[in-house]
Design a protein that fits this description.
PhoD-like_sf; TAT_signal; 7-stranded mixed beta sheet; globular; single chain; Alkaline phosphatase D family protein; 14 helices; alpha+beta
């Protein structure tokens, strides 16, 4: 029996280049025959000191028969200001009528506003972004987001982000869309709160992935967040299919869903069309979206790719009754030295970037990474509550799932890590990465998504030596493992069982607001009171600080009203 550890425990608790701009002064003479709209708002991403990628999507009245739609874009110093830089482009059918352009004449470290317009005078909403600073930078404010299953909740966290007085950029760590159909993951929640899904089936083709991106982008709160600040994005697994790796995915069945390479190519094409991300460099794989951003003399942000470039297949559990022998065999496969996550070229690129940042005297190196890096041990209910109480808790679970829950707990007692799809499934690759940190002279801040939980982790290598600090953000809306059994303090149990885990909340939804100064880093864990209605309250669940000058940096928790 193949056992999904996260689900089981939850029961107890082509067109890759930017469109070429038309020549200066070229008239927008070919207005569309029927009215077109900017139904999906605007977005910016991948900022530079001189600009950013600016994105929109034109919705023709009849996309099936529409030709390229001319578009004009403008950037100004205020929402109603006179354009400082303008240009022309086309919304083409070959790119699903999406548009990506890049201004290059702006000032560093400055807020700008932008919009698009059609030949008939139709204007898009106005968006805002901030260029990267050059030289001295006093502070930096980043929102860290991930995991936004449409049907499982409203995007209240994005509404809260959009209203922040200060927000320099949003770091999105993946699971921007989900591939499932409306009768799969999260469907019962969507039925209750009226969050439907299109297309009404699991997405496999290019048309499917495009339509799913369009559906997600129809959300007003997501549009508002995109209009508020530039997004710096990487994908995780659900932009293609659940638990993806280089040559496949847990949720891809070749017999019924065709060739994985074709599905992956379709998913990535739609991603590059619909996200405000810089398109692939000529001659490099589409999956090579690892890239760096320099925020003056304050911080270097390195975004890594952990799914499609080099990741080895996850080790799966196939045992109806875990034993010491069977779990030992699993761990032997997990610990194989040839198992990869980043791959050597990407790891070397990361090491060089970290080393250059340290050499330049930059106090903060930040890594945008998809999955939890810390060593996390599974909970032992017998140890936490006593055998009798644990037995009673299990007896209260639905009979159909009780055996799976017991198997998961038995595996944890025998030494199985909590999540083999995270870095715990690739310990040799993690040690190679930690060696890179050490050679680079960096103690980075590692960001993590994917888990639908908040984490604050003190990372250590296999010898127990501190190497980095990890801030893991919970989901914007996706279900958390702890949702299934609120009375079980799963986050506390994981922290108690795992020396590297300083804090874990397995129920809250929200995002991390990360503020960096030359002297310290502060991570504010912002939780939403609910994602099941559009009315919500936001509060600080926990706040952690780091001293930039300290060696072997370690998290210090600050008291908050909501902690």
């Amino acid at each position: 029996m193949k056992l999904d550890r996260r689900a089981a425990l939850g029961l107890i608790g082509s067109g890759a280049a930017l469109p070429a701009a038309t020549l200066p002064g070229m008239a927008l003479a070919a207005a569309p025959a029927a009215p077109a709209t900017f139904r999906h708002g605007v977005a910016s991403g991948d900022p530079t000191p001189r600009g950013a990628i600016l994105w929109t999507r034109v919705t023709p009245a009849d996309a099936a028969h529409a030709t390229a739609v001319p578009v004009r874009w403008h950037v100004a110093a205020s929402a109603q200001g006179k354009p400082l830089e303008s240009g022309s482009a086309e919304a083409r059918p070959a790119r699903d009528f999406t548009v990506k352009v890049e201004p290059t004449k702006l000032k560093a470290g400055t807020d700008y506003w932008y919009w698009f317009e059609l030949a008939d005078g139709t204007r898009s909403p106005v968006g805002r972004f901030r260029t990267l600073p050059v030289g001295k930078a006093d502070d930096l404010v980043l929102a860290v987001a991930t995991c936004q299953l449409f049907v499982s909740g409203f995007y209240n966290a994005y509404d809260h982000m959009a209203k922040l007085d200060r927000l320099d950029a949003v770091v999105h760590l993946g699971d921007y869309i989900y591939e499932y159909g409306p009768d799969q993951y999260g469907a019962s929640i969507g039925a209750k709160i009226g969050r439907t899904l299109e297309p009404a089936h699991e997405i496999v083709t290019l048309a499917d992935y495009r339509a799913r991106h369009a559906w997600y982008k129809s959300d007003p709160n997501l549009q508002a967040a995109h209009a508020r600040a530039a997004f710096i994005c990487v994908w995780d697994d659900h932009e293609t299919a659940n638990d993806s790796w280089t040559d496949g995915a847990e949720n891809h069945q070749p017999a019924s869903e065709g060739d994985w390479a074709a599905r992956k190519a379709a998913a990535l094409q739609a991603y590059f069309e619909w996200l405000p991300i810089r398109d692939p460099q000529p001659g490099k794989p589409w999956a090579a979206i690892n890239r760096g951003f320099t925020f003056g003399d304050l911080a270097t942000l390195m975004m890594v790719e952990t799914r499609l470039l080099a990741r080895s297949e996850q080790v799966s559990i196939a045992s109806a009754a875990p034993t010491a022998e069977s779990i030992g065999a699993v761990l032997a496969r997990v610990n194989r030295p040839d198992r990869e996550m980043l791959g050597e070229p990407q790891r070397e690129w990361l090491e060089q970037g970290l080393a250059a940042s340290v050499k330049a005297g930059v106090p903060w190196q930040v890594i945008g990474n998809q999955v939890v890096m810390a060593r996390v041990n599974g909970p032992d209910l017998d140890k936490a509550f006593g055998a009798d109480t644990a037995k009673a808790m299990l007896a209260a679970q639905p009979e159909a799932f009780r055996a799976q829950i017991e198997e998961a707990l038995a595996g944890y007692r025998l030494g199985l890590p909590y999540n083999l799809d995270a870095w715990d499934g690739y310990p040799a690759a993690r040690e190679r990465l930690y060696a890179s940190f050490r050679r680079a002279g960096s103690e980075p801040l590692v960001l993590a998504g994917d888990s639908h939980a908040f984490w604050a982790n003190n990372l250590a290598d296999a010898k127990g030596q501190p190497v980095a600090v990890e801030f893991g953000t919970s989901a914007i809306s996706s279900p958390s493992v702890g949702d299934s059994m609120p009375q079980l303090p799963l986050g506390q149990l994981l922290a108690q069982a795992s020396p590297e885990v300083a804090f874990c909340d397995q129920r809250a939804k929200g995002y991390i607001l990360l503020t960096l100064t030359p002297d310290r880093a502060e991570a504010d864990y912002v939780g939403m009171s609910t994602v099941f209605t559009r009315e919500y309250e936001a509060k600080s669940l926990a706040r952690f600080t780091l001293d930039a000058r300290a060696k072997a940096r370690k998290l210090a928790r600050k008291d908050t009203a909501g902690a």
